[in-house]
Design a protein that fits this description.
Keywords: Signal. The chain is about 10% helix and about 40% strand. By secondary structure, the protein is mainly beta. The strands form 8 sheets. A 4-stranded antiparallel β-sheet has the order 5-4-1-24, with no helix packed on it. It has a 4-stranded antiparallel β-sheet with strand order 6-7-10-11, with no helix packed on it. Strands 12-13-16-17 form a 4-stranded antiparallel β-sheet, with no helix packed on it. A hairpin with a 5-residue loop joins strand 18 and strand 19.
Length: about 280
């Protein structure tokens, strides 16, 4: 058979399968909304201009962005992109960035996580001070908090040594305020997504699952394929991966666009942080 016909048929089947999955998805009942940001500016299907550091709000009706678009407040960061974001019910916001930058005149490294002291982030504190940890060489490109004890869970964008751990971009690290441990080991032969992947957005849910975005398109053990604007779910309890939600429904010409931060907001869930 003609190779071109085979290729076209495969593409059509893949597109049909993906469309079926997208239309079948809905945010679970315990999820209120999904907040996220993306890496490039563009116009969405409704002609709304979206900037890289805008916070997009998805209420789960299958349209992206389906809700409102609100700025993440921090604008004057010298071209840096927000690649980690979290906020609590009291409005406290946390950020990390893709490059070393300055926020309101103060130096913030790509390995730091800052906590804003007010809505406009005119003043902030270093929630995770990488210099104090001698980790200024890493890039924290995704983070979240354990909903039970407030431990920091984060991922980095490349291989590094953190404490006594050898870490790659597909791993997740737990920090309880004094000790680093491996929360997810991508080299596991049982549940690994592959050490060559890069986790670039994380949010932990009260179910104990992690909502995760990966930087590049790929597949998981031939069980399913995914795009870099999809959310996957990982359950540590049974070490399984699954589709969670497809946020963006843009056309093929916008495939380079990817998630850079993610936070899954749940109904009546209060996040607690146990250390500074």
């Amino acid at each position: 058979m003609n190779k071109q016909l085979i290729k076209q048929g495969s593409v059509m089947l893949a597109l049909l399968f993906n469309v079926m999955i997208v239309h079948a998805q809905a945010i679970p009942s315990y999820v209120q909304q999904i907040n996220y940001s993306v890496d490039i500016g563009h116009l969405n299907d409704g002609g709304i201009s979206i900037l890289p550091n805008d916070l997009l709000i998805d209420y789960g009706d299958g349209v992206a962005p389906s809700g409102s678009i609100s700025p993440t407040v921090i604008r004057d960061i010298r071209g840096a992109i927000v690649d980690g974001f979290h906020y609590e019910v009291d409005g406290t916001k946390y950020f990390s960035f893709d490059v070393d930058t300055r926020v309101n005149g103060a130096s913030v490294l790509k390995s730091d996580i800052i906590r804003c002291n007010d809505f406009n982030c005119t003043t902030f504190g270093y929630f995770f001070d990488s210099v104090a940890q001698n980790l200024q060489h890493i890039n924290i490109n995704a983070f979240t908090f354990d909903v039970e004890n407030g431990d920091l869970i984060f991922s980095i964008d490349g291989p590094a040594t953190i404490g006594s751990l050898g870490v790659v971009a597909a791993d997740m690290v737990r920090y309880d305020g004094s000790v680093f441990s491996l929360e997810y080991d991508s080299s596991s032969s049982i549940d690994g997504i592959g050490v060559y992947k890069n986790i670039n957005a994380i949010s932990m849910m009260s179910t104990g699952e992690y909502g995760i975005s990966l930087e590049n398109d790929g597949d998981y053990k031939d069980e399913f394929n995914y795009d870099n604007h999809w959310i996957l779910s990982y359950a540590p309890s049974n070490r399984t991966w699954r589709w969670f939600y497809t946020i963006l429904s843009f056309g093929e010409f916008e495939n380079p666009l990817k998630l850079t931060s993610l936070m899954i907001r749940e109904n009546d869930l209060i996040f607690r942080n146990g250390f500074d």
